[in-house]
Design goal:
Two copies of one chain form a homodimer.
Chain A: H1 3-8, E1 10-15, H2 20-32, E2 37-41, H3 49-55, H4 59-63, E3 66-68, H5 71-74, E4 80-85, E5 95-97, H6 98-109, E6 114-118, H7 127-130, E7 135-138, H8 150-164, H9 182-198, H10 208-221, H11 225-239
Parallel strand pairs in A: 1-2, 1-6, 2-3, 4-6, 4-7, 5-7
Helix pairs in contact in A: 2-3, 2-8, 6-8, 9-11
Chain lengths: 247, 247
């Protein structure tokens, strides 16, 4: 099953959210990570202009959000509900960090719907709400200040879901550049050494150690083909500066 | 070195932030993950009541924030600047995802200061700002909607830093080499540009593009302090070769 299908099986449930702005910011956070199914259990204000404003380009998630009157209603059809917890609780739920939780969520969402459940801004999930969940997930935080904003918590969890999803969501690749071949590099190093000798930097009798140090610098840079040409152009001018230069 | 010490070597730099609320939310995001050094480069409004309001319990980070008039000033003393990028750029900076970037950041921050650099809400980091960075980090996102809120991006990056930091003092790291500071690098770049103009390689009227390409080569190499000295020695001889050389 591919990534869009997995994401289609994941819903974010916000319980009794007080500030409509947080609903909008949470929608934006979800959409940046590819999640799109938002469920709202008894939101204090919804729909609301502030929610729409903070959602920016994710207002479509608010329009398609499902408003429910109870958490069980929001969990209809789900085979796993993961409750987010900011603190350790005196309960017997299994508690894992969000990375582990995301990994399990994605595995199951490949086949069946699951829910990520967030409590109120002030006190998180109630015990009754936790009883509707099968797993608790915690975002590791500074023990002296654990107060993540609701939308920030949604952002971190959604991010971990994207990172856990297959199909390389977690990998980043830049447009491939053409790296220099080994021969091109050796040609450059020889040109460089010759130049350093000509300008009196290297002693041709014992250049080894210094040459090695310089080679290491360029080895770490992983030079592209074009960059080798550029550097060799500099070397050529170091020995014979342009005749016509006015500088 | 333990986690608090690593965090003491990590600064978050926000460039030209437009909305003071985002500065406050970013401070809150940082503090939840244990980061505390905030640098602001030319913030549009700061200090500001909205920043303080959104920081909630992290207002102390705003009070101790360092306001700078340029990015190089904010990077003083840092040996690695990681620029956050929301999109793939047509440049040859090394680009990794935030998880990999956090891992590298933490390794270096165990010994020397590093910076996480965030651009404006609307357009991210400028090319000139990127030139001050040695590594680009990207948060994997929904290709159809990559628009993370600034504070959300700070939250994800800070979270990855916390996840990457070792928990105890039991970790072993290789003997660290002393990396060049930002000031040393800038001194080298200025020397290099001056030399390239003198040998007729760069046109002082329009050196920009070529200088940038050369800077990126050395940015990728993550130069050590000693290597900068070595390279500057070569530059000096490129302009005035040793009189007594026989070669």
């Amino acid at each position: 099953m591919n990534k869009p299908d997995i994401f289609n099986n994941i819903r974010v449930v916000l319980c009794q959210t007080s500030h409509p702005g947080n609903i909008g910011s949470a929608a934006r956070a979800m959409k940046t990570m590819g999640l799109r199914h938002l469920y709202l259990v008894n939101p204090l204000h919804f729909p609301d202009a502030q929610a729409t404003s903070l959602a920016t380009g994710a207002a479509d998630l608010l329009e398609s959000a499902t408003v429910c009157s109870s958490l069980p209603e929001a969990l209809t059809g789900c085979v796993l509900a993961i409750g987010m917890s900011a603190r350790k609780r005196q309960i017997s739920h299994e508690l894992v960090n969000v990375r582990e939780a995301a990994s399990r969520a994605v595995t199951i969402a490949a086949h069946q719907p699951i829910a990520l459940v967030f409590g109120t801004e002030m006190s998180g999930l109630s015990n009754a709400e936790l009883d509707c969940c099968q797993l608790l997930a915690m975002i590791p935080a500074n023990p002296e200040y654990t107060s993540l904003n609701l939308a920030a918590a949604v952002q971190v969890m959604s991010y971990e879901i994207r990172m856990a999803a297959p199909d390389g969501a977690s990998t980043v690749s830049a447009t491939p550049t053409e790296l220099a071949t080994n021969e091109a590099l050796e040609g450059f190093y020889a040109h460089l050494e010759d130049t350093l000798i000509k300008i009196g930097y290297l002693n041709p009798g014992a250049p080894k150690k210094l040459s090695e140090r310089i080679r290491r610098i360029y080895a770490r840079a992983r030079l592209e083909k074009e960059e080798v040409n550029l550097l060799r152009g500099i070397l050529t001018l170091s020995v014979t500066p342009k005749k016509h230069t006015k500088y």
